[in-house]
Amino acid sequence: MNEPDIDRRLYSRWNASGLRARWQARRTHAKLRRKWATPEVRRRRRYRTIVRLAAVITAPIAAVALVTYWDDVRVMAGLTDQSTSTEVPRTSPTTTVSTHVPSSVLDLDQPFVGTPAASWEDGIDGISVPKPKPVGDFTTKQVARALRQVKRTISASLLDRKVIEDHRIRRYLATLAPGVRRDLRDRLDDPAMAANYMVLIHEDYPLLPASPKLSGTLRMRAGKPGELIITAKLAAAYAFDTDHPDRLLRALDIVAVRRSVTTYKVYTGPRWQEAGHGVHVRRTKYFIYSMSCDAAKNGYLAPQYSDRGWNRDKLEHSDEHYFDPAKPIDTRTNCDL
After folding, report:
1. pTM of the entire structure?
2. In the chain, where are the structural domains located?
3. CA distance 76 to 13
């Protein structure tokens, strides 16, 4: 006698045990619930469905965004220490030559040789910072903290490669008082406006790995109660890459300098709202030299070799004068001629 068909045997057990009847009852009950549900119940069901679909769609997008902007998220959350340096590590010479030796041959490994910036320190170490001491109602500890905060803002605006080359403005905003961030966020979308606060390197002319060089001073004085005023007189030099160094005649063809006088105000204490505690940028006056005039008009910094017309013979002063952070800012440049 043949064995019974397995599928038929299982079907018989399904019927015999009443499982099929219960399954049909549940389906019928669900149909009736949907048919006789009140409008309010239907709205709640549609809402739950929409929320679930939105969660399924947005979760992968949020994960990708978090991975992409993880560095910026950590900066905004204050989980990184930018007080020492905000530069992105790159392959570069262990040291840069600190002698102003005239040279008619460009050395892309030591790009500042032959320029007034050759003797400057690399990065933030080029700034002369006063020793912390009591100023007004600021204690020595509070002054030291304020100086660190201002140096962090300077480093973000002039040295942080993610800001100056990748144009991640949020990293700069993270160094300012919370209330200032809100006020500046939309305004800094315009490169011409952002150039008053930071350096923006033109995307077509990347920098060499060599660290930008800084020279200048910080000076501080008391303001209102809970206010410390710090004035920064700075010069920052940048070395640009080139595919044809043999076509250029001197180091300044690839080195540009930005000089600035900026007033920072640091607020703390009960007199000021919590959102105002921190660094405020009150006034900036800047001047650039040995650069592209076309790029500068749009708020970007690029090397002078990218411009066809360069009125070097008409300049009023020597290169050293234009690199000196102690000289007046309102000096005319080749772009004014």
Report:
1. 0.68
2. 11-68, 70-336
3. 64
